[in-house]
Amino acid sequence: MLLIGERINGMFKDIKEAILNKDPAAVEYWAKRQTEKGAHILDVNTGPTVSKEDQPAVMEWLVKAAQAASPLPCCLDSTNPDAIEAGLKVHKGRAMINSTSADQWKMDIYFPMAVKYNAMLIGLAMNEKGVPKSAADRAALAMELIVNADMHGLPMPDLFVDPLALPANVGQDHGPEVIEAIRQIKTLADPPPRTTMGLSNVSQRCAERHLLNRTYMVLCMAAGLDSAIVDVDDELLVDAAAAAEVLLNRDIYCDSFLKTFRQR
Amino acid sequence: MAVTIAKERWTSKVNEMVIGVEPNVVKVGGDSTLPFLHFEGEMPNKPVVALEVWDMEPPDWPAVLTAPFAGVLGDPAAWAKKCVEYGAGLICLRLAATHPDNKDATPEEAAQSALKVAGAVDVPLIVIGSGVEEKDAAVMEKVGEALNGRKCLIGCATVNNYKTITASCMVNGHNIIASSPLDINLAKQLNILITEMNLAADRIAIDPLVGALGYGIEYAYSIMERSRLGALTGDKMLAMPVICFVGQEAWKSKEAKTEDNEEWGAQERRAILWEVVTATSFAQAGGSIFVLRHPESLKQFNTHIAEMMKPNNY
B252-293, pLDDT tens digit by residue? Predict the structure, then answer.
């Protein structure tokens, strides 16, 4: 289970201020902290306050600051392809692109970019029409992503399909559809693509957010979820991921399984 | 019609361990695929054989096994030289005399025996105790010290005595054998405990306590296979080369101990076959170091391995 730390995002107040003041301290702090807490990749997002023209430069600055404080690779999170490419150019190691939708014009930008920079790519199971309701419709869009990966020569395990989880208080009926979609996506190709999701989305504006996140992650892991963008500061969430890896026989049990999970 | 060869894409590999000092080092491990799948990944080092030498005359070895060592069984140094003549890549000195039921030799006496053997041969050394955990810890403390700097492989460390043996390896520059009784979870945990003492992971060899053909060979086989799959998919705490003490198991079997008879035929051929088939099976499961007893078994095993190491690139 690859955990992508969500915290370096301009939506959070301290990161937003760091960007505005060009002070990398908060970025470095969260890069270090998330590394210690068991993240495998650091999500990096400029946030909504940065103007489109400034996004490439801010992304570049964020990636450099994060990688100065942590050996982990980054997940470059933006809707602006120029910002993503600016991040890829300065990134050390194998980056992850977050994300393309299943719209052909977007896939024609991001798949060649992923191949060019030897990066992994998150593909959202949605298009201009929005987020599909059923598992089958999500799987159909996942298939578009898979075909494009094949067409552009992106190795299938480097494609991470995100079936898009919605908040439990808004789209409750999406919950089981997403789980079923994960199960289906894992059967669409051999080797299959990997799967991911923005986990905290499932608990937006809900009570007991940590509990909802943890529980949903484990349910999805059982269906084949390979990674998620998460709050690694939630120690019990990381524990639950480690336990689920063991119980799903993905990781060989040993008494120190909580510790070894964090060491990878 | 062209056949497409299915190839797995592994993300990790087995650690490479170096035993002995230049120019006589033996390297094991380093595999980035399942055994002998040369078309899929690298198998940079071939499986190696150590022949067993004891620090006392073995009381229960059958005549077909003592015959090749006639005249040297009471002298570990001469015995070790004989093994090298037979083609052993390493010597495995078993300090059986330290067992309280044998001679209860002291750690100091054991260290003397180890030094004699080390002085007699150029090949790298494996040194193991008598299997009494507490005594082995005391023995390996002294033996490790006596062999300082020779980069031996010493053991066998268990969950009960690993601390002293690990410390001896760290101070004196040796590699360690981590033993766990046919239990992959315990094997992994023991490796974690040893690395937590700051001994590098590439200085640990896993001893899964294999059984011989007909005596539970399949249990060890599947554990070795599973830990290799773990190693190849990134489990760092199972990415150690595996040592198989085949001789001690094969020569304990009824099939090896029963003398010539009409139904089963000649003992010598049968016993050697038992040892060789056990060893070659474990080579297929991913074993790297094979501790054998009979020189003819060593010859047959090496012939088999030479054939298996030929490239099979499709």
Answer: 999 999 999 999 999 999 999 999 999 999 999 999 999 999
Question: In this predicted structure, what is the pLDDT of residue A264?
Answer: 64
Domain residues for B233?
A: 180-305
Kindly report the pTM of this predicted structure. 0.88
Mind telling me how many Å the CA of B69 is from chain A's nearest CA? 43
- Report how many domains make up chain A: 1
Pairing status of strand A227-230 against strand B16-19: unpaired
| Nearest C-alpha in A relative to B186 | A254
CA pseudo-torsion sign A49, A51, A54, A60 = positive
Residues B193 and B291 in one domain: yes
Q: Is residue B29 part of a domain?
A: no
Across the interface, of A252, A256, A259, the residue whose CB is closest to B235 is A252
CB-CB: which of B186, B192, B227 is closest to A260?
B192
Calculate the alpha carbon distances from A17 to A21, B195, B201 in Å: 6, 42, 43
pLDDT in tens, B128-156: 999 999 999 999 999 999 999 999 999 99
Q: Mark out chain B residues that contact chain A at CB-CB < 8 A.
A: 9, 184-186, 188-189, 192, 226-227, 230, 234-238
Q: What is the ipTM of this complex?
A: 0.80
Hey, is A70 helix, strand or coil?
A: coil
- Residue B245 sits at φ, ψ, to 5 deg, of -85, 80
- Which residues on chain A are in Cβ contact (under 8 Å) with B184? 252
A7: left (phi over 0), alpha (psi -120 to 50) or beta: alpha
**Could you give the number of structural domains in chain B?**
2
Residues in A closer than 8 angstroms to B227, CB to CB, are 252
CB contacts of B8 in chain A (<8 Å) are none
- B238 and A252 in contact by Cβ < 8 A? yes
B201 plus B284 within the same structural domain: yes
Looking at the fold, whether B134 and B188 belong to one and the same domain comes out as: no
Q: Would B243 be classed as within a structural domain?
A: yes
Last residue within a domain, chosen from B133, B152, B171: B152
